[in-house]
Amino acid sequence: MNKLELQKIANEVRRGVIVSTHSAKAGHPGGSLSAADVITYLYFKEMNIDPKDPQKPDRDRFVLSKGHSAPALYAALAHRGFFPVEDLLTLRRIGSYLQGHPDMKRVPGVDMSTGSLGQGVSAAVGMAKAGKVCGDDYRVYTLLGDGEIEEGQVWEAAMFAGFHELDNLVVMIDNNNLQIDGSIDTVCSPYPIEEKFEAFKFHVITIDAHDFDQIEAAFKEARETKGKPTAIILKSIKGKGVSFMENEVEWHGVAPNDEECKRALEDLDKVGEALCQK
After folding, report:
1. Collapsing DSSP states into helix, strand and coil, what is residue 76?
2. Is residue 116 within 8 Å of residue 65, measured between CB atoms?
3. CA nearest 65: which of 107, 111, 117, 102?
4. Which of 2, 121, 218, 252 has minimal Cβ neighbours within 10 Å of its Cβ?
5. Are 72 and 241 spatial neighbours (Cβ–Cβ below 8 Å)?
6. Domains in the chain, please, with CATH?
């Protein structure tokens, strides 16, 4: 799949984020939009997965450690064929399998239930270690928020991963610099992020989270790195793709109303039209 095709799918994933959170009247659009490109790349190019067999033993694993960005994960899974796209409109509804945070027992394609920040990465590290112990060649990917890495459990997991040389693990940090209470550098700064992961014996790569060429190069470099886990620092824009949401902290956990949904979809329609002209 080429870059243009990935860009088009990522735009559809962003549409899914908007329509699902609007339908639910709740959710977390900002961080879902910032993560849409890397999640699209993972599910449509990077990972060994099969929508017809979500539990196949040799599949690559993905853990959305920042579980509140479930709308982006659900949209990617739906467009990849794990479940019907129209089910996105049931987000957070009573009786829906698409809860506010991912549920591995109910959602096809979800490898770990997440939501309590800091815990998902520990599960991912455990999966990677299990692969090494059992001699399996699957890879494990986990996505964290930059505010999430203020949690101490993240660094316990990082210490374990580096010590055990888990080169089948890729930890991604969605570094949009905003969390629910404001900018991360004023709430409880985790900077410098790169140096922290390097201290825990990670190979570290920093990229533009919205550039598919850089995303592809980073995952290739991660695959070629031996004897160390890889951390990819994704320099992203919260609310990416929707003009009035970009870099605005209030869109961390607020769903768009009818008028805002209309405006957001108009923005994404323009992006889609521009991509169709290429």
Report:
1. helix
2. no
3. 117
4. 2
5. no
6. 3-276 (3.40.50.970)
